Amino acid sequence: MESTPVTRPVYLNPGALTRLRNAKGRTVTIERGEVWITQENDVRDVILEEHGTFTFDRDGVALAYAFAAPTILAVEEGIVIEHVTHPALRVSAYVLPGSPVYRREHELRARAVEELLQKFSVWLRCSSRNLLHRAGLPVQPC
After folding, report:
1. What distance, in Å, lies between the first and last C-alpha atoms of the chain?
2. In percent, how much of the chain has pLDDT > 90?
C-alpha cells in the first residue's frame, strides 16, 4: 500500500521568486495560480497552471516564479523554501529574452497595462463629464 506524501502550502505573491532546495524526487502541485519552475543544470522551462504537478529530477537549486496572480503551491515535506527578497535577484536575472517564461511574463504584463489603461480611460471620461456638469454645462454626470 502506497502512502500519500505529506505536503504543506507555500504562498507566493505575484512576481515572487523562490528557491527550492533538497527537492530531487519530491513533487509540487499548483493549487492556485500559475508558476514557472526551473532546476539547476536543466535547460527546461516548466510552466504549470492550477492542478499541475512537477517532480524534481535534479540535484541543486530549483527556482519557482509566480506569474500575475497570487499562487499557492502544495510542497512535499523535505523541500527547503527560500523566498528571494533582494532586488538584484529578480526573475529577470534568470530568464533569457525570447524564452517561454519571458514571453509569458511580458504577455501578462501587457494585459495588465491594457486593463489599467481601459480603467483610466473610463475614469477620465467620467471625471470630465462630472466637471462639465458642475460647471453648469448640459452634460449628464456619471
Report:
1. 65
2. 33
